[in-house]
Amino acid sequence: MNLRGNRGRDDPEINFIPLIDVLLVILIFLMVTTTYQRVAELQINLPEANADPAKDRPKEINVGIDAQGRYVVDKQVFVYTTVNAMADLLRRAAGDAREPVVIINADAQATHQSVVHVMEAARAAGLTHITFATQSAASK
Questions:
Q1: Which domains does the chain carry?
Q2: CA–CA distances in Å: residue 103 to residues 22, 39, 117, 123, 133
Q3: pLDDT tens sequence across 21-40
Q4: DSSP labels for 41-91?
């Protein structure tokens, strides 16, 4: 039974000409709107300056506190008696340095009071810049 009649079968065809036209229009649009940097054309001579040298780092006074509460101030063992005695030691360690920094290296098991002693002595000595040394946790 032939329901189509005598019509032949049309093969489908793909027309590429409109596709090529669209691609060419996109290409022309991109070429027109693109900006190009021309770094090689600029020749810049930078000015020279004779500036002051960089500031020196402030003097560091390292205070170590171990778990038993023993103190070491700039590699000198110190037996704590009073805040004033420690303040005198900190003043001597600072010398004539301008605004020295007191770095407290306290053991993790050191008592809070031993750290407070150092902070109080630094205040009594007139040293206002205090910082704490830490280390990163070991990776497991």
A1: 60-132 (3.30.420.270)
A2: 70, 48, 14, 13, 6
A3: 999 999 999 888 887 666 55
A4: G---------PPPPPPPPPEEEEEE-TT--EEETTEEE----HHHHHHHHH
Question: Which contiguous run of DSSP H or E holds residue 131?
Answer: strand 129-132
Q: Percent of the chain having pLDDT more than 70?
A: 78
> Which pLDDT score is estimated for 56?
74
Instruction: Quickly list DSSP for 22-39.
Output: HHHHHHHHHHHH-----G
Regarding pTM above 0.85, the answer is no
- Fill in the DSSP letter of residue 98: S
pLDDT at 88 over 70: yes
